[in-house]
Design goal:
By secondary structure, this protein is of the alpha+beta class. It has five helices and eleven strands; from the N terminus they run E-E-E-H-E-E-H-E-H-E-E-H-E-E-H-E. Helix content is about 30%, strand content about 35%. Pfam families: Impact_N.
């Protein structure tokens, strides 16, 4: 199976969404995240905002490629697998990553049963994803190219020909340029620079 160098994510938090079932209220939120620290911060903020709620159930997934995915689902006191996993199921269904979805529940006095809970948390997650702008991004590799100033034209010609993205540069007697390359093009770009006389290239992702 070919490894894809594309992934889907969101770039900003979703607007708040609300799903109601038998007087219970379920507020859904989606956030772009890349670390557990960010997850904790969003949960703390929501617990302050909804301090009278009963449950703050969530799921998240990090990692740009399938083999790198890290995920967690949390029922936060609801019956086992009735909240976190239905939320995570929606993350998978939308094919999104680097994302946190939290569904906050205010208990309305009537028990919904496990089936009702699964439906409510799934719907809250689905609504928050539908309210989000999901974008497709490329998985990129960063290379550092370093060389003497006299070889500048050689390097810049390849960068221009291959339309490469420069993310950082230091152009002095000895020069350093950092480029960001799509994963699928990475090995061919590496070979081009590696074969140039007096040009050095280093993979910054190792």
């Amino acid at each position: 199976m070919e490894t894809t160098d594309l992934y889907k994510t969101i770039t900003k938090p979703s607007p708040e969404v609300l799903f109601k079932d038998r007087n219970s209220k379920f507020f859904g939120y989606a956030f772009p995240v890349t670390s557990e620290e960010e997850v904790k911060q969003h949960l703390e903020d929501l617990k302050k905002q909804h301090h009278q709620a009963r449950h703050w159930c969530y799921a998240y997934q990090f990692g740009k490629q399938e083999q790198d995915h890290v995920f967690r689902a949390n029922d936060d006191g609801e019956p086992n697998n009735s909240a976190g996993m239905p939320i995570y199921g929606q993350i998978q269904s939308f094919g999104a990553t680097n994302i946190l979805i939290v569904v906050v529940r205010y208990f309305g006095g009537t028990k919904l049963g496990v089936g009702g809970l699964i439906n409510a948390y799934k719907t809250g997650a689905q609504m928050s994803l539908e309210a989000s702008k999901i974008v497709t991004r490329t998985v990129n590799i960063e290379y550092l190219i370093y060389f003497d100033y006299k070889n500048m034209n050689k390097v810049m010609r390849v960068i221009k020909e291959r339309n490469l993205n420069i993310t950082n540069q230091k152009l002095e007697l000895s020069c350093e340029i950092t480029i960001s390359v799509r994963l699928k093009d990475a090995s061919s770009i590496f070979e081009i620079f590696d074969s140039l006389y007096e040009i050095n290239i280093k993979d910054l992702n190792d």
